[in-house]
C-alpha cells in the first residue's frame, strides 16, 4: 500500500490564493468564498458554496467573505480589523473551504498524503499561524508555515545577499536573506498594500471628483491597469459614470498619489532593517532588492525605491519573473526539498498531540490531523 505523496506549495494571500503542485498543475483563485444569500439564490446557483471568478459575477446573490481581508486572521487579530466574534467564525470557515478548494483544483492523488508549505506574513504571530494551520487541517496531512518573502527567495535560489519585499494586497513583507532562515526580528510586516492603495485612491476620487461613481473594485481595476508612481507615465484616463453618463476623466494625479502612499513606509522599514547589519552586508543587501507580490507591478516602483535609497548608498531593485506564482512555486520547491521522513515526522507529531506547543519562532512547523 504505497500511496503516492502529493507535495503542494501555497501562497494563501489576502487577495488571491495560488497553488502549485508537484504533479505539474497550478492554479490561482480569489481568496474569497461566497454563500448564496437565500433559497432563491441557492436554487439559481445550484450550489451551497461558490468559489473563483464566479463570485464576482454573482456577488449580488452571495454573502461574500474574504477571510484575510485587511490582514484579518493572518496578521491582525479579528477585533482590531473591526469584525465580530461571529464573523471571525465565518472567516475561519471561509479560510478552511478556500484551502480545500484551492488544493482540489490541482487534482491531488486521491489516496496519498498531501504535504505542503504555506506562506504567511513575515511577522505573523504563533496565533496567526495556528489559524492558517487550522484552515489547512482538513486538506493537508502535514503542513509547514513559512514567511511569504522567504518562499519567493527560495524559489529563485536567492538565499543570501538578497532583500525580498513582497507587496501583497493586505501586507507588505520584508525579509533579508542571509543564507539561513531569517530571525523574526530581522523581518518586517507592514499592514499596508494593494488594498490600502485602492482605499486611498477611492478616497481621493470621492474628494476631487464628487459626481463620478467609483466602487472600490473599479478603483482596484484602474490601479492594476494604470498604476504608477513615477513622473514620466502616460496620463491615466478612464471612463466613469457621472450622473449615469459615461464620462472620460483624467485620474492620473489621484492614482499616482495613492500608489505612492506605500513608498515612505517601505523606505523607512528598509532603512530600519538594514541598519541592523554591518555596513558591508548592508550594501550587498541593497544591491539585490527583489520585489514580489502583485504590487511589485506598479510602474516605476523599482526606480522610486532606488531613488529613495540613494542617501543610503544606493540600491539595485528588480522584480520577480512571475508575481502571481513566485510564492507558490517557491513553497512547492521547499516542500519537495524536505526529506520524506521529515514530513512523516510532522504528520506523526500531529497525530500524537493536539496540544498547542510553542513552535520555533523562525520556522513554525505544525501539521494537520
Ligand atoms: N498590474 C498591477 N499593478 C498594480 N497592482 C497590482 C497589479 N496586479 C495586481 N495588483 C495588486 O496586487 C495585490 C495582490 O497582490 P498579491 O496577489 O501578491 O496579494 P496577496 O498575496 O493576495 O496578499 P497578501 O500577500 O497581502 O496576503 C492587489 O492589491 C492587486 O490589486
Ligand atoms: Mg502574498
Layout of helices and strands:
Blueprint: E1 6-12, E2 16-21, E3 26-30, E4 33-36, H1 39-45, H2 54-57, E5 62-65, H3 78-81, H4 85-104, E6 114-120, H5 126-136, E7 142-147, H6 148-155, E8 160-167, E9 172-178, E10 188-190, H7 194-208, H8 216-226, E11 237-242, E12 245-250, H9 252-260, H10 263-274, H11 279-286, E13 289-292, H12 301-308, E14 317-319, H13 326-337, H14 340-352, E15 365-367
Parallel strand pairs: 1-6, 6-7, 8-13, 13-14
Antiparallel strand pairs: 1-2, 2-3, 4-5, 7-15, 8-9, 9-10, 11-12
Helix pairs in contact: 4-5, 6-13, 7-8, 7-9
Bound molecules: adenosine-5'-triphosphate and magnesium ion.
Characterise the protein shown here.
The chain has 369 residues and is α/β, with parallel strands linked by helices. The protein has 14 helices and 15 strands. Among the domains are: 6-28 and 78-153 and 325-367, ATPase, nucleotide binding domain (Nucleotidyltransferase, domain 5); 194-260, ATPase, nucleotide binding domain (Nucleotidyltransferase, domain 5, 2-Layer Sandwich). The protein has helices spanning 39-45, 54-57, 78-81, 85-104, 126-136, 148-155, 194-208, 216-226, 252-260, 263-274, 279-286, 301-308, 326-337, 340-352; strands at residues 6-12, 16-21, 26-30, 33-36, 62-65, 114-120, 142-147, 160-167, 172-178, 188-190, 237-242, 245-250, 289-292, 317-319, 365-367. The strands form four sheets. The chain has a six-stranded mixed beta sheet. Strands 10-9-8-13-14 form a five-stranded mixed beta sheet, with helices on both faces. Strand 6, helix 5 (126-136) and strand 7 (142-147) form a beta-alpha-beta unit. The two termini are 20 Å apart. 44% of the residues are buried. Bound molecules: adenosine-5'-triphosphate (ATP) and magnesium ion. Residues 11, 13-16, 31, 68, 148, 168-171, 193-195, 220, 223-224, 227, 293-295, 297-298 line the site of adenosine-5'-triphosphate (ATP).
